[in-house]
Amino acid sequence: MEAILQLYAQPYDETRPMLCFDEKSYQMLGHIRSPRPMSANQVRREDHEYKRGGTRNLFIFSEPKAGQRHVLITKRRTKQDFAYAMRYLVDVLYPDSQQIDVVMDNLNTHHYHSLVEYFGKAEADRIMCRLCFHFTPSHASWLNMAEIEISVMMEQCLGRRLPDEWTLAQELIAWEHASNEAQRTINWTFTIEKARDMFAKHYTADLSC
After folding, report:
1. How far apart are CA 197 and CA 87, in angstroms?
2. More exposed terminus of the chain, fewer Cβ within 10 Å: N or C?
3. Which residues pair with 51 in a beta bridge?
4. DSSP state, residue 156
5. What is the spatial distance between Cα 137 and Cα 73, in angstroms, rounded to a whole number?
6. CA-to-CA separations, 111 to 11, 86, 175, 188, in angstroms, rounded
7. Helices 112-119 and 121-128 sit at what angle, rounded to 10 degrees?
8. pLDDT value of residue 35
9. Which segments of 42-109 does DSSP mark as H helices, in order?
C-alpha cells in the first residue's frame, strides 16, 4: 500500500507519466418504445422494457496528475485483450515516453506472461522495457485512482441506455475529449501518514520505523 501512496506523492513528471489502469463491463441497452421527451411539467420518461445489445469491456487509462484519460473498447477482457491494451498504451498513447508507471489491481490477466503468450518474448520485452507495473494489494483496489475515473465516467456519460457499440464509442469520445480539454485532475489526499494512522494496529515495529 505504501509503495502506491509513495508513487502518488511524487511530483508530476511529464517525461515519466503515471497511469492508473482498470476495466469496466458495460451492458448496451436499447429502447423498445421511444421515450417520452421532457416537458415543462414532466420529466423524461422511458419504458421499463429494453432491448439487449450485448456487453463490451472498457479499459480505462487515467493519468490523474495531468488530467488526461482514455477509454479503449474491447469485446472481452482476456489475457490477449490486456496484452493488446499494453501495446496500445506504449505505441499509441505514449509513444515518446521512455518509462511509464502503471497502477493496476492483481487480476490474473495483468501479467507479463500475457504479453509473452500472444506476442512472443521479443515483443513482450520491447513493450515491458517501457512499463513499470505497480499492483494494489489484495482487497485494496480502492487505491487505484482509475476507480474514481470509472465512477465519474458512469455518472457523466454512461448512466443511461446506449443501444450499440457505435453509440457507446461516440459518447465516450465526446466525454473523453471534454474531460481532457478541461484537464480534470484527481486530488488524491490519502497519504502514507494517514494510512499509518488509520491502520496503526496492522503495523509492526519494523514497518512503522
Report:
1. 39
2. C
3. 30
4. I
5. 26
6. 27, 10, 30, 26
7. 140
8. 64
9. 79-88
3-class secondary structure, 38 = coil
pLDDT at 53: 72
| Strands 18-31 and 50-63, bridge-based pairing | antiparallel
- Categorize the per-residue pLDDT at 208 as very low, low, confident or very high, splitting at 50, 70 and 90: very low
> What separation, in Å, do the N-terminal and C-terminal C-alpha atoms of the chain show?
16
The pLDDT, as a whole number, for residue 38 is: 66
Overall pTM surpassing 0.90 (yes/no): no
- Across 67-105, b (16+ Cβ under 10 Å) vs e yields ebbbbbebeebebbbbbbbbbbbbeebbeebeebbbbbb
Q: Are 28 and 172 in contact (CB under 8 A)?
A: no
The CA-atom distances, in angstroms, between 55 and each of 76, 123, 152 are: 9, 30, 20
The answer on pLDDT for 50 being more than 70 is no
**Which tens digits make up the pLDDT trace of 135-169?**
999 888 899 999 999 999 999 999 888 999 999 99
